[in-house]
Amino acid sequence: MVAFLATMSVSAQDHKGWMKQIQPVADKANLAGLHTAVAGDGSVYASTTYDKVFEFAGKNITDPEGLLSSCIVKYDKEGNELWAVSLLGKCTINAMAVEGDGTLYVAGKTTDEKVVVTSTDNTQTEINNPTAYDVMADAEMVSGYSAFVAKINADGVLQALKVVSPTSAIPEDLMTLEVSAITPTKLVIDGDKVYVSCAFGGNVAELGWEGSYLNMADWMMGQDLKSYGLFSLAKADLSGLTSVAKVQREPLVATYLEGAQEDVQNTPDAFNFGLYNGKAVMTFIGWGDLKLTAGGVSKVFSFAVANDGTGMNEHGMVCTNGSADRSTVFHAEKHEKSYVPYNLIGGEFVNGNCIFGGTFYGNFPLKNNITRDKNTSFVASIDMATCGVNWVAVNEVESEATCMIVTSEEVHAATTDAKYTLDTTTGELKDVDAQGFKDAAHFSDQYVGVIFTENDKVCVFSPKMNPSAISNTKVQQNGAAKYYNLNGVELNAPQKGLNIVKTAEGTHTVVIK
């Protein structure tokens, strides 16, 4: 096990390359849907929400009603503004990926009755949510929050659009105060298909997914319970919607009885996936009894849920290679579910190993002797042949994982506050950068794009180097670094506090906490 060290006093501004800013919101609290993608010519795509007028590439992007709409902007490899595509209406972009030729695929969710996509050729296309008559409001209201997948060419023209909508799974004799929703979580291009994972509530008829819900009959109420799914589409025209996998509580319907909490705690968390040899490799956190359907096979996983008032529940990390019957479970010691803010990121493959990361709290499933009393980020490598753990690197400070770039030599794992560079083979920490990122992407280890925020500004940064040199300080590279205190006395190793580090690449200041 490798522990992350502390934070260096380095920021994105210290690196060569370009950085651009836009100010799309009046309040930084409204910034969301921040994602990036990098094409083969070095051009960088970025997405964000917006609620006011701002200019990009000589064009005003407007949201007259302040709806918190979304947009996608594109820069060339020199940082020049090329174009913007707006999605006017309440919506969020949740994931995107791009091919080498600049064809962009975007997945998002809309919570408005209508969202209008305006391409660079001024063609407008509507994304519509389903509606139904609401007795209380005496009006037609949105009855489901839909997911959408859009294909946009390198010139900013919409080529194809697929909308996937839910319907309520809750019986009509029960009242519900929420709207069923499909929320994309990740998008991957592989071969001739596009794969999208999502959290969903309600029924998704096109995919044959039934929703899971909580039946509170004593109060005549019902509530959606979270499930996760993975579907694919034809890359050419986004046709051929097909279910790849889903994981849900077992059975689907939960009943709430006072003093018996175990029936409402069976839900999956933090579903993540990647594609390996054409098969979906999936990872999720399991609580209670869950059924995974993947590769035409269904399997139930059971984790003990306390019903003694302690709230101490067993959970586990489930790793699945293509089919539900090819799953490995990493169990964690019991602890309170409500304090576990899991997320999982990455899912890249190098030399037969899956490298991923995330955030955990309390007991760590991959290594039960690791515990943290605060939200903590980690990176791990798992052997695809044996599903054995090669290494894990766990942060020593409170942190939340946000994104990851993996190359043949290095892993660049970002949190909200810092970016850590690790060796892909050993997990050894090589570098720490004090600039946190919201999202990062690269093309063929050649071009890099990252996105982060400064107050109410969105910053898009592209260094003129490959990912293995995103950070310009290599404090542990081949033992070549020399450490000095502020008096110039050479040290055998870095010490707590301020250090001066000299390498072949230059002299840098490092803070070790």
Helix content: under 10%
How would you name the oligomeric state of the polypeptide chains in this document?
single chain
Distance between the termini: 19 Å
- Radius of gyration from CA coordinates: 23 Å
For the record, the count of structural domains works out to 3
Can you count the helices?
0
Shape: globular
Strand content: over 45%
Give unreliable regions as ranges.
Answer: 4-14, 466-480, 505-513
- Give me the count of strands: 44
Largest sheet: 10 strands, mixed
Structural class: mainly beta
Q: Would you tell me the overall average pLDDT?
A: 87
Observed structural traits:
single chain, 513 residues, mainly beta, ten-stranded mixed sheet
Give a verbal description of the structure.
By secondary structure, the chain is mainly β. It folds into three domains: 16-164 and 418-478, no CATH class; 166-405, no CATH class; 480-512, no CATH class. Helix content is 0%, strand content 56%. It is built from no helices and 44 strands. Strands 9, 10, 15, 16, 17, 18, 21, 22, 26 and 27 form a ten-stranded mixed beta sheet that branches. A six-stranded antiparallel beta sheet has the order 3-4-7-8-11-12, with no helix packed on it. It has a five-stranded mixed beta sheet with strand order 1-33-32-31-30, with no helix packed on it. Strand 41 and strand 42 (490-491) form a beta hairpin. The protein starts with a strand and ends with a strand. The model is unreliable at 4-14, 466-480 and 505-513 (pLDDT under 50).
